[in-house]
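Help!! Second protein's tokens look totally different from the first
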Amino acid sequence: MSNKKKKKLTPIQQEYHSLSKNSEPKRPVLVNVLHAFLAGGTICLIGQGVTDFFIWNFAFTEKSAANPTVAVMIFISVVLTSLGLYDHIAQWAGAGTAVPVTGFANSMASAALEHRSEGYVLGVGGNMFKLAGSVIVFGVFSAFVIALIRTVGTMLGGA
């Protein structure tokens, strides 16, 4: 809390603030960073394994194996979410599971599962995109703006 705000507090409030700050448990930042790194790295390692599987067994190129790899990783994330395992992994890993595409799939699947008692259309379908909807809208809008800039640049004789 800044000194400006602290001055507005009564002496009892200041004492309480100091007491609560001193009794707050210290966060193990280094351990949390290590967990996030290991979890994110493991997810990427699994993704690379899936990519290599598509390249070796189905004669995909690296570029053409990317889309099915993302689909498989999303599928794995949704299955783990529906079994209740992804939440346990995320509890341990922190941001390591939130950053990859699997975290995005988890957010959509968990929102859908949370409202399944309301029915498939209004419950699952209506609530699935609550959290992810803004991300999808931003992605579509950004892609449109980039395509527009590139098209105008091409029309003006650019690369």
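Here's the second one for comparison:
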Amino acid sequence: MENTVLRDGEQLLNATDVAHFLNISRAMAYRLMQHGKIRTVSIGTAKRVRIKDLRNFVENNLSPMSEV
């Protein structure tokens, strides 16, 4: 994974990195980013995702625990 690192050490991920992180296709990662499901940072025409926004996406999409 080759990604951008901000001054504070925070990484910005591209769609391929997001796809690997979530174990989904790159096309699905692009769709989630384009539709605003995953918050993005715009750098010119490029879209990048902060790790903390990706983790928030995962947390916000957890299914409720079922009681057995």
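Reply: Different proteins will give different token patterns, so don't panic. The first strand starts at residue 4 and ends at 5.
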